[in-house]
Amino acid sequence: MLILTHSGTFHADDVFASVVLEAALGDVTLVRSREAEAIAAADLVFDVGGVYDPGARRYDHHMRERPLRPDGLTPYSSVGLVWRDFGRPALARLVDGLRADEVEPLWAAIDTSLVLPIDLADNGVAPVGPGHLSLLVEAFNPAWDGPQHFDEAFGDAAAFARGVVARACREAIAEIRAAALVQAAAGAAADPRILVLDRKLPWEKAVHEGGLDEALFVIYPNEGATAWYCKTVPPEPGSFGQRLGLPDAWRGLQDEAFRRASGVEDGLFCHPAGFICGARSRESTVALAREAIRLGGA
């Protein structure tokens, strides 16, 4: 399939759009041109041509009546349009072992975290500060006095973007799968205040966004399961506070001193700030959480 975007200086939206189309469509040939004959001959055109017509596979967004996101306010860039129509089939190639029920949440996560910020930056809707992804991609454009051709530089930028998309997908699907495991742990919990996970994973966002308002402590092992940790749940994501802190009498203690204070034979430590403690076994760590709840009057 022949896909086309404009020649010359490139931006994040056309670079990322080319990566998405390559993943979605497989065997594509990319042409970069502003010539009318080349545009007419292409099977799919994005970010150039002055036409927005998904049925004809024309995805420009620079017209006066530019295409808008479902909120009716936020304008699309070319990558937003391409992601909307080709992002889902692209994910099948970007993520190994992707289940059917994971496609939509993953598509939405990438749209929010990666695609939307490019849409906003490309349309001048949001400020772009140093280090913004859009500026990093634009930095691949050749210097005015450099020898590199724009098409070669576009290829370098696309290789960079390909890595960014792959990494974003890996992180997003890991978070989605972690949320499912947290919900499963909540469903199996004998006490909704204590969630026990069989491995270490990112649970904080899943607890807050999953409506687990009763959860006070999360139990999980280290990599070798030679120790288990009991960590307090913060009142909101990213907070250093605690819904229920560990007992003051435990804080800062280790080994034998902690074991005497907690009454748990294989207890290991309690952090001085009272947000995490641990023991050698799962059962003992759950016992720490139960005792903390009893002492805290929760």
From TrEMBL:
One of its GO terms (cellular component) is cytoplasm. InterPro entries: MYG1_exonuclease (IPR003226). Pfam families: MYG1_exonuc. It comes from the Bacteria. Belongs to the MYG1 family. This is MYG1 family protein. The lineage of its organism: Bacteria, Pseudomonadati, Pseudomonadota, Alphaproteobacteria, Hyphomicrobiales.
